[in-house]
């Protein structure tokens, strides 16, 4: 298993996640070192003594809107160069298994959970790298939706479920097809296994496999490289 996937969840209802993250598959994934969770209370990034995170919409209308300041400051405190910053919103791209697989390949995910009537538009425009919805219905907030996305992604990390759960992951994560595989005999009816695979030089074998995967992908699935 590679380095742990860092998952940060920014929410005004951190307690909603306690039971979810502390049980079952997600708990075991964290214990195995496949994933690391940080639950962050958005109010910790407010800048007034009332810890205000929301305000009335410009132009009028019902409900309250999450202010940009606390969300920007939270992300600026948490993010790394490789972080995906995911705004959970009913206006986002519809989540599916392919999106789960793609997120499971990331190194760092920061989930921003909207609540109330909405989130200031500048968060989606200038802070988030992705906007995700889990389906065509409206929840009272994004925290439960983030939990759904996290469950679907973490179970796809190699080693979290049985080994069979990892099938297809390697291909998917580097955006290339699999390299060619061989087993004995080394010479089958005159068709020989490439010498490098018999050399015992693991650096050279890795290099050959990467090159072969790229070549195959160029020839068979150029759409994956585009
Ligand atoms: Cl991400 N948030 C909310 N509030 N409702 C949703 C959703 C998200 N996805 C589907 N419905």
Explain what you see.
The protein has two domains: 5-154, Alpha/beta knot; 171-225, tRNA(m1g37)methyltransferase, domain 2 (Trp Operon Repressor, Chain A), CATH 1.10.1270.20. 35% of the residues lie in helices and 20% in strands. The protein has nine helices and ten strands. It has helices at 18-21, 24-31, 68-78, 97-104, 121-126, 142-154, 169-173, 202-220, 222-225, and strands spanning 5-11, 35-41, 54-55, 65-66, 83-94, 108-113, 118-119, 130-133, 187-188, 191-192. The strands form three sheets. It has a five-stranded parallel sheet, sandwiched between helices. Helix 4 (97-104) crosses helix 6. It binds 6-chloroguanine. 6-chloroguanine binds next to strand 5 and helix 6.
Summarize this structure as a short list of keywords or feature phrases.
226 residues; alpha/beta; Alpha/beta knot; Trp Operon Repressor, Chain A; 3-stranded mixed beta sheet; 10 strands; binds 6-chloroguanine
């Amino acid at each position: 298993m590679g380095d742990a996937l860092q998952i940060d969840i920014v929410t005004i209802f951190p307690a909603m996640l306690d039971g979810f993250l502390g049980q079952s598959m997600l708990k075991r994934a964290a214990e195995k070192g496949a994933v690391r969770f940080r639950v962050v209370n958005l109010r910790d990034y407010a800048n007034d003594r009332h810890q205000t995170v929301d305000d009335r919409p410009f132009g009028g209308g019902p409900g309250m809107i999450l202010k940009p300041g606390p969300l920007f400051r939270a992300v600026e405190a948490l993010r790394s160069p490789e972080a995906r910053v995911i705004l959970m919103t009913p206006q986002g791209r519809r989540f599916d298994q392919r999106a789960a697989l793609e997120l499971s390949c990331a190194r760092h995910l920061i989930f921003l959970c909207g609540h109330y009537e909405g989130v200031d538009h500048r968060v989606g425009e200038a802070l988030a790298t992705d906007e995700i919805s889990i389906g065509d219905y409206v929840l009272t907030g994004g925290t439960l939706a983030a939990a759904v996305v996290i469950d679907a992604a973490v179970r796809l990390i190699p080693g979290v479920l049985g080994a069979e759960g990892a099938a297809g992951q390697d291909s998917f994560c580097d955006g290339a097809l699999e390299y060619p595989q061989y087993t004995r005999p080394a010479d089958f009816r005159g068709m020989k296994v490439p010498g490098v695979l018999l050399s015992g030089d693991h650096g050279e074998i890795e290099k050959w496999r990467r090159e072969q995967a790229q070549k195959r992908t160029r020839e068979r699935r150029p759409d994956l490289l585009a």
